[in-house]
Design brief:
With 169 residues, the protein is α+β, with helices and mostly antiparallel strands. Helices cover 27% and strands 26% of the residues. It is built from 6 helices and 9 strands, in the order ββββααβαβββαβαα. It has a 9-stranded mixed sheet with strand order 3-2-6-7-5-8-4-1-9. A hairpin with a 6-residue loop joins strand 2 (11-12) and strand 3 (19-20). The relative contact order is 0.20.
């Protein structure tokens, strides 16, 4: 019924020991799919979608590092490094929270296009999504849908391993 993608970025704030999950995503579809999990004021959603170098961050990480909406935050990439060697700069456009028990409130989510536009095409690191997230109308059909997706890409340069989010976790 819907899809989005994410790319594991790997990032830390100021020192390597300050690592937290950092993902490059397509903001509109990511927020749509995770609407129940990510509580984010509407004005912050709009700001994030409109800001190519913007990010949203989980309430736990914002609290830990003192991040505030509107603040510019330097994040050093562990997988994707800027060509100039400097940190990636993000504007905190929103701070998400969640009432769902066990929801991860430590992520930093940013716009994949910022990553794509900054990484040189010749690097071979562009357009290499780590995963896609699909929502399906009948969750009972997840094993069947997963098998069909994996069969479509079997023996290709881009083989897949499809699992439910519960299986992944």
């Amino acid at each position: 019924t819907d899809t989005t993608h994410a790319n594991w970025f790997g990032g830390y704030y100021q020192e390597v020991r300050n690592q937290f999950a950092t993902f490059a995503t397509e903001p509109e579809s990511w927020l749509r799919i995770y609407a129940k999990e990510f509580e984010l004021p509407e004005d912050q959603k709009k700001a994030f979608i409109a800001d190519r170098t913007g990010a949203i961050v989980g309430a736990d990480t914002a609290r830990k590092y003192g991040f505030k909406v509107g603040q510019r935050v330097p994040i050093q990439g562990t997988i994707y490094r800027r060509p100039d060697g400097g940190p990636w700069e993000f504007t905190i456009d929103g701070i998400y929270d969640s009432k769902i028990k066990g929801a991860d409130k430590t992520n930093l989510i940013f716009n994949y296009l910022y990553l794509r536009e900054t990484i040189p095409e010749a690097s071979g690191m562009r357009d290499r999504y780590n995963w896609y997230v699909f929502t399906i109308a009948d969750p009972q059909r997840a094993p069947e849908v997963s098998a069909k997706i994996d069969a479509m890409f079997a023996n290709s340069p881009s083989e897949t391993k499809t699992a439910t989010e519960k299986q992944f976790v």
